[in-house]
Amino acid sequence: MSGVEIRELECFLVLSEELHFGRAAERLYVSQSRVSQLLGALERRIGGRLLERTSRRVSLTPLGEGFLSELRPTYEALRATVERARVSARGGLEGTLRVGFLGSADERVMGALSAFRERHPHCEVAPVEIPLADPFGAVRRGDVDAAIVCLPVAEPDLVIGSVFSRQPQLLAVPLGHPLAGRATLGAEELADCRLIGLRGPAPRYWREFMAPTATPSGRPVAPGPQVRTLQEGLTAVAAGLGTMLLCAPTATHQNRRDIVFVPVTDLPPSALALIWPHSRESARHRALSQLMTEQLVTPVGA
User: Keyword Transcription: yes or no (predicted)?
Assistant: First the structure.
């Protein structure tokens, strides 16, 4: 082992895969003569030939096959150790963090994600749309690493990080609807509306919050059509098939001339939260949550 160079080992590993000096040289970004030099140096250290080379083919010798079977797992373990140390040196903030959104993200959220990229240039954030009717499925399956969803969230396997954008709920009504000209409306007036619901695996408490079946005093609210995505719901509203409750950031980000958003009083305010699985929590999740709190949460009394 005295004096052995990692480059010699890498050369042998590539050669054992390609069994061609020209292709190995291309992969290693060196000349064919340099590949021959590295292989020769390794063979002299070992004291035997590792590859047989003829004018037609390159093949491993029995010594080479045995050496390869022991070297490969050791080399991979060494490379993984170096990679873990490199990531640790950067605080674990590296790679791509896929963040799910219900519909789309508004300018404030996108600004926070841009600030995260600037603070942690080795960690990219990739926005991914998730269905309104399944707010927790994508993050549980690993389709996304985290998600920004509407509260409430009462899932014991999910972490609730930064909570922001606490604002009154808005009712989406089609242009020309009797309520479209109102500055606000009371929660009891929902009894006179057909509320668009959700068709999907969202928990019952979450679907009830998004489309309550009764007013605060207990008056029943007529159900409208059920949808899976935000755009399906807005299309149904525009078509006059029902009305739809939305959180303020989601509503105000929709630039539609055929829908009016009216604040609803007497309902619990809506809020957005960053969530992720307990089982896959990482430094990236915590760093993003901290930055979103800094950027998006208004201090008490401000």
Answer: yes
Q: Strands 185-186 and 259-265: what pairing?
A: parallel
What's domain 169-268's superfamily in CATH?
A: Periplasmic binding protein-like II (3.40.190.10)
- Residue from 39, 78, 76, 41 nearest 61 by CA: 39
Of 244, 187, 192, 198, residue with least CA distance to 222: 192
Q: What are the tens digits of pLDDT across the range 84-107?
A: 666 555 555 678 899 999 877 778
Buried b (16+ CB within 10 A) or exposed e, 204-237: eebbebbbbeebeeeeebeebbbbebbebbbebb
CATH number for 95-164+274-296 (one of 1.25.40.10, 2.60.40.10, 3.40.190.10, 3.30.70.141): it is: 3.40.190.10
Which amino acid type is present at position 209?
A: F
Question: How far, in Å, CA of 169 to CA of 55, rounded?
Answer: 77
Other C-beta atoms lying within 10 Å of the C-beta of residue 165: 22
Q: Any idea where the domains of the chain sit in the sequence?
A: 6-89, 95-164+274-296, 169-268
